[in-house]
UniProtKB/TrEMBL annotation:
Protein name as annotated: Sugar porter family MFS transporter
Example GO molecular function: transmembrane transporter activity
Highest rank taxon of the organism: Bacteria
Family (UniProt): Belongs to the major facilitator superfamily. Sugar transporter (TC 2.A.1.1) family.
Entries under InterPro entries matching the protein: MFS_dom, MFS_sugar_transport-like, MFS_trans_sf, Myo-inositol_Transporter, Sugar/inositol_transpt, Sugar_transporter_CS, XylE-like
Length: 472
């Protein structure tokens, strides 16, 4: 038995372990979309400075090219659900894989800045689709006893994708002699960084042909016999297939299709619970976490760190991100969502405040003084660790649990849209803010991290141990 199977079996008590290996393969294949989500989101980190010099653009224009992918993300996330209901989950995965591949090739071989931006929008659309389809598919295919653990594959795949993209960028930079614009394979190094994503994108597409369609979708289009075959694959022969199909059909008929109108009410347009969800999404982004993944190489180089070392620090930050995510997955059901969020907020305040302090010092010979340089480096890792073990995971858990059944789908859509918009605001503003005052920029992120503490204490209720039906 593999370690993954042992982890899933511990405490799960599911009835059909002989099918577990196959189920893990299906979930892992679907989670490749999450891997590409993380990879494509973070790979641009290695190309920022090269794009700036190649096209001779200022910070504001550069930021728009980096952030524009998030527009595609929002569109992809908003349309993926309905698309999946019409053409199926697997077909959506295949479309997403094609878009990732097209984006990788186009981004690696741009004619000008404008078409690089276009290819990034295409990649963003694929990210948005993957962010919705992967978790939905895994939830629909996984046996109930393993659903939580298998569902965590998506988040794990995202953080692994981020880390691998930074490792690949570092390797390519070393192969190009430490120059982001150094020649490699007939093009510049940064172009190779963006093009390498073709490999996991094609793998994702191939894996999508090796896994079955969701039983839920098959039943929705009248293919009950194929749905029974898939249910046997993942749940075994020891279940009453007719009863299982009837159960899925009954659940689909009883579901309330929530709409935007269901969210209206209260004093300020939306119901209070919707504003709390929006608040969680905004705070998650306004602490500046994506600066660490989109701009960290640029950030370290701006304070005198050698480019090769700056790429290495980006990779080590990504490893810390993985460690923090694992910690969150272990403790989110043990100590609860609220305590974890509060612990993370306190840790982020400390890390961000120390970064603001370190960046307030003048550069000496183009570098931060030694003490401040080390403080900035350690503090950056502390910040990412506390974010990953708390808000990085907890917000998505909260958003999946906190809304009443009758508005859950629509409210989650609004909160997710708020998250993409907040992500765009931080990503688009950082280069200009950093040019203005890097230390003050981190003071702003520190303030948002500090404000998240009273927000959680005052407005956010614990959802640990409550059924979805109890939320109201």
């Amino acid at each position: 038995m593999t370690s993954a199977e042992q982890t899933l079996k511990s405490g799960a008590g599911a009835a059909h372990p002989e099918h577990l290996g196959h189920v893990i393969f299906i979930a892992a294949a679907a989670a490749m979309g999450g891997f590409l989500f993380g990879y494509d989101s973070a790979v641009i980190n290695g190309a920022v400075e090269a794009i700036r010099t190649r096209y001779d653009v200022g910070s504001a224009a550069l930021a728009q090219v980096i952030a524009i992918a998030l527009i595609g993300c929002a569109i992809g996330a908003a349309t993926a659900g309905r698309m999946a209901d019409r053409i199926g989950r697997i077909r959506c995965m295949q479309i997403s894989a094609v878009l990732f591949t097209i984006s990788a090739v186009g981004s690696a071989l741009p004619f000008a800045l404008y078409d690089l931006a276009f290819w990034r929008i295409i990649g963003g659309f694929a990210i948005g689709m993957a962010s919705v389809i992967g978790p939905a598919y895994i939830a629909e295919v996984a046996p109930a006893a393993y659903r939580g653990r298998l569902g965590s594959f998506q988040q794990a795949a995202i953080v692994i994708g981020i880390a691998i993209s930074q490792l690949v960028n570092w390797g390519i930079l070393n192969a190009a002699g430490g120059d982001q614009r150094g020649k490699l394979l007939g093009v510049e190094a940064w172009q190779v960084m963006l093009g390498v994503m073709v490999v996991p994108a094609m793998l994702y597409g191939l894996l999508s042909f090796a896994i079955p369609e969701s039983p839920r979708f098959l039943i929705s289009v009248g293919r009950d016999e194929r749905a029974r075959e898939v249910l046997r694959e993942v749940e075994g022969d020891g279940i009453d297939m007719d009863a299982r199909v009837a159960e899925i059909e009954g659940a689909m008929k009883s579901e309330h299709k929530s709409t935007f109108r269901d969210l209206l009410g209260g004093t300020f347009f939306f119901k209070p619970i919707v504003w709390i969800g929006i608040g969680l999404s905004v705070f998650q982004q306004f602490v500046g976490i994506n600066v660490a993944f989109y701009y960290s190489s640029t950030l370290w180089q701006s304070v005198g760190v050698d480019p090769t070392e700056s790429f290495l620090y980006s990779f080590t930050t990504s490893i810390i991100n993985i460690i923090g995510t694992v910690i969150a997955m272990i403790f989110v059901d043990r100590i609860g969502r609220r305590p974890l969020a509060l612990i993370g907020s306190v840790g982020m305040v400390v890390g961000l405040a120390l970064e603001a302090w370190a960046f307030s010092y003048d550069l000496v010979d183009g570098k931060l003084p030694a003490t401040q340089g080390w403080v900035a480096l350690v503090a950056a890792h502390v910040f990412v660790l506390f974010f990953a073990l708390s808000w990085g995971v907890v917000v998505w858990v909260f958003l999946g649990e906190m809304f009443p059944n009758r508005i859950r789908a629509a409210a989650l859509g609004v909160a997710a849209a708020a998250q993409w918009i907040a992500n765009w605001a931080i990503t688009a503003s950082f280069p200009s803010l950093a040019d203005w005052n890097l230390s003050a920029t981190y003071v702003i992120y520190t303030i948002f991290a500090a404000l998240s503490i009273p927000f959680v204490l005052r407005f956010v209720k614990e959802t640990k141990g409550k059924t979805l039906e109890e939320m109201g």
